[in-house]
Amino acid sequence: MTAHLLALTVGPVQEFIAAARRTRDLWFGSYLLSEISKAAARAVRDQGGELIFPAPNDTADLKPDSALTVANVILAELPAVDPEHVAQQAKAAARARWREFADAVYRDYQGVIRADIWDDQVGDVIELYAAWVSSSPQTYKADRAKLMRLLAGRKSCRDFLPARGRSGVPKSSLDGLRESVLLPPGKWPERSRRRLRVREGEQLDVVAMVKRTAVGSPPYPSVARVAADPWLRGVGRNRLAPLADACKQLRTDVVHQLDTSVGQGHPGYADFPFEGTPVFRSRYSEFLRETDLSESDLEPLLRALAPLVRDFGEPSPYLAVLVADGDHIGQALSQLDSASDHRAFSQALADFAGQARQIIHEHNGILVYAGGDDVLAFVPVDHCLPCARALHDKFGNMLGLTLSVGVAVAHFMEPLEDLLDYGRAAERHAKRPRAEDRGQDKRNGLALHVLKRGGGPVTVRANWSAEPDQHLGDLANWIKERAVSGRVASDLRNIADVYDNWPADTVKDAIQRDTRLVMKKKQPPGASRMREVEDLIRKRVADADSLRRLGYELLVARQIAEAIRQANPPSPVEEVSA
Questions:
Q1: 200 and 258 part of one domain
Q2: What's the number of CA atoms in the CB half-sphere (13 Å) around residue 271?
Q3: Which of 58, 113, 358, 559 is most exposed by smallest CB count within 10 Å?
């Protein structure tokens, strides 16, 4: 029988990953898609296929719930089996794995589910498209290129079952694609009402319901917990003990307790192993809306939190959304001459994904997805720069390629959909410099976007070779040490406006003099760093555009400095001396 190359793609990616209101929805959607793809890959291997992507190190990697993350594209050699039969078996395996999750949810929550709508939707979720070409080792590169063109064409011819819409049934709140499977809230059992924690008016279709409630995984840290992490570390375990005790007094379906075990858990959150909402007093109304608690039930939390806010201030509500993507991956794949070379590349990508998980956890972040060269994570603001650098360097060392990283700093109360959009916009900026990023190369970049509520985004970008993480980190530490004013940025922009269109032969000396004067005048009381500041001006300020850029960098650094200060609060002696 003729040998073939087979490619499969599993979906829908949008419903499994992008549509989410909570980090748990987001993470479990990516986990669910990986598990379904893993089942399809296992079926290909069991039918005699030789996997190329993914390329597991051993058979245990393809077992359910293994640590291996499998992307939604599968590539395999079929030495002597019918590709159509293999594709059918893979599709059946993918659907069976999906039904394992869905059926478990239905058994546990059937008291809140409309069975007729559930049955209509549950069998129409998994999308699996396949293409294959005859192949030989001598023509692998050309065969793979042809195969991927065929697969792209197949995906453009999507299969649609007849719609069965129902008049008067609300659509899912997450993406509006399907009707809600939920019964009216008045008919819910009390136990299910407490566990679901559905907001008033929120509706879930079959995919959203499975992501929200599937068993077998612990509660997932919220964006509020990530935002609060610098403040919690600054307070310290001993001072946090009364607040932790108050959280324990409430039911676990009200304040979720986190898994802090090494491995799949979040050991960096051991000092306060709870979701972040109890730290933000402004969010206590959320407890009352989503649970059956009364205001008196929250009084222990308020009593425990009050002295911490008095001594350490309110926690900052900002977190960093980190999105990373490998550069020139498609080009690197197109240069591979053999299946064995491709397997080695696939294994390196899988190894990096494992390292990315460790790096994110080391920086107290939560990993949503690391599939090969793609990384999506939420990270505390004070750790976003070293985390981005560690990912970039690890990717380069393991694959010999560069990694572009976008970081968006935004308020945790922004809709999760918007947070993801902010992160992806930063990642696109890291890939492609804008007009204001003069002299920068495409890709191999770091972009930071700060999005404060009520204002426009502040964006900076540089190639990694310029060490932007070191530069911004230095500025943040200077602001934190009160050696440089974080509020001087507007003055610098005013100076830049004055020097627009100045002659090139005179602007540099004049603008540097004015910049030094303003920086010295605005220097706050604290550790003097004017020598370093003057050196910075000589190196980085040459005209109006470069000064304006320094102003934006100070605005970004100011937000990072606030998180660093909360993670490292001054002692009472330091506060008096300052």
A1: no
A2: 16
A3: 58
Write out pLDDT tens, residues 182-205. Answer: 998 877 876 776 667 677 778 889
Phi, psi of 411 (to 5 degrees): -75, 135
CA distance 545 to 248: 54
Tens digits of per-residue pLDDT, 460-519?
999 999 999 999 999 999 999 888 888 899 999 999 999 999 999 999 999 999 999 999
CA torsion sign, 523 to 526 to 528 to 533? negative
Could you give the count of Cα atoms lying within 13 Å of 18 in the half-sphere of its Cβ?
12
Q: Do residue 327 and residue 372 come from a single domain?
A: yes
Which of 266, 284, 312 is the last residue before a domain boundary? 312
Does one domain contain both 199 and 248? Answer: no
Domain of residue 245, residue span: 223-312
Q: How far is CA 297 from the centre of its chain?
A: 33
Rg of the chain (C-alpha set) = 26
pTM here? 0.93
d(CA 286, CA 281) in angstroms, rounded, equals 10
Has residue 256 got a pLDDT over 70? yes
**What share of the chain in percent tops pLDDT 70?**
95
The CATH number that applies at residue 348 is: 3.30.70.270
Calculate what percentage of the chain has a pLDDT beyond 90: 72
CA angle 29, 35, 40 (to 5 degrees): 130
Do residues 284 and 206 share a domain?
A: no
Sheet containing strand 374-379, edge to edge, reads: 366-371, 374-379, 318-326, 403-411, 445-451, 458-463
pLDDT digits (tens, 9 = 90+) for 337-361: 999 999 999 999 999 999 999 999 9
Q: Which of 288, 292, 289 is nearest to 194 (CA)?
A: 292
Does a structural domain hold residue 165? no
How many domains does the chain divide into? 4
Q: How many other CB atoms are there within 10 angstroms of residue 336's CB atom?
A: 18
pLDDT at position 573 is 39
- The H or E element spanning position 478 is helix 468-480
Q: What separation, in Å, do the N-terminal and C-terminal C-alpha atoms of the chain show?
A: 81
Residue with tokens 């108050």: 246
